[in-house]
Automatic annotation (TrEMBL):
GO terms for molecular function: glutamate synthase activity. Residues 1-51 form the Glutamate synthase domain. This is Glutamate synthase alpha subunit C-terminal domain-containing protein. It comes from Phytophthora sojae (strain P6497). Belongs to the glutamate synthase family.
Amino acid sequence: MRKCHLNTCPVGVATQDPELRKKFQGQPEHVVNFMFMLAEEVQDYMRRLGFRKLDDLIGRADLLKVNQDALHYKSRKLDLSPLLINASTLNEGAGVKKEMEQEHEVEKCIDMRLIAKAKDALESKTPVVIDDVATNLDRTLGATLSHEICKRYGEQGLPDGTVHLKLKGHGGQSLAFGLAKGVRLDLEGDSNDYVGTGGGGAYFSGKAGERFCVRNSGVKTVVEGVGDHGCGYMTGGRVVVLGPTGRNFAAGMSGGIAYTFDEDSSFQKKCNMGMVGVAPLTETASAAEIHEVKALITKHLERTHWDASVTKFMRVMPYDYERVLLERAAVVKETKKSASASAKTTTITWVVLKGLRYVRRGDSKEHEMYNQGNHRTAMTHSL
């Protein structure tokens, strides 16, 4: 199971934990030695080709050829020669290596604006709500802001909801990448792939495309439907799908749990059963697990703002159809009214004693109820 991002690498490679690092059998000198040997091998190839500098090799696709013996018998029929044409041959003057410094314009990215607007939260943990517009040029949106939080407060971050980002527009790749604790990001719009990479929770109003939660390692998420290859190679986290799924769901899934709403009993035909089992939730899960699923769905309802969204739904109905429904409703209402009036006549049994008189309200007639002999008499009267 993948742990490289959790600082818990069991073999001591991708971790800074001193106890886990003791498990690593290698030494830093081994890496240095590998790099030296790699450089020597590259130099050997360059000498054979007659080159002294790597810069002189860049773009020289004419020095490459296809190793036909290494090809699969099917791929041998492919003509790969167009891949080995030098770019300058197709487009005279085309650059094939770095010729100028690249301007990254980091200072203009949206995170810099967010950091400035979150000043009170960063300096004194004062809650802030930030409205802004996202574009698909803003990749890893939120990561630099999270870096600023972690520099000040470490892994514990800020209290929940201290920084609330309310964005509209189109998120770029890796939206909400590695968000620090205390940051909530709401996007009204759509986004490219790798949303929420790095853990936490994500709630989607709408359906996702293909490969939703592929390689998910810890995120808890709820979505209203997914395309093909959902939860492939997933190693951790929880995924709740409230709508339909595409084919090949859970291929290579080795960790975590997914829950799908299988309304038409078609899910198993779409699920890749190579590494997973599928069974009804109520037959296999504990009460605590069922409660967790319900809590995720409840939070999804809260986070996707149904109260605000319901006003945006448009109702489309034919005039004649609406008229018929209204007429039917009127008939039903009148029928219920008549039935209610009839139900007011009720039979009641009275047990009376000698000399007792009863006068019905709303009626001038007086009804005397008496005793015959020394026995009480039961009389019925309709109101």
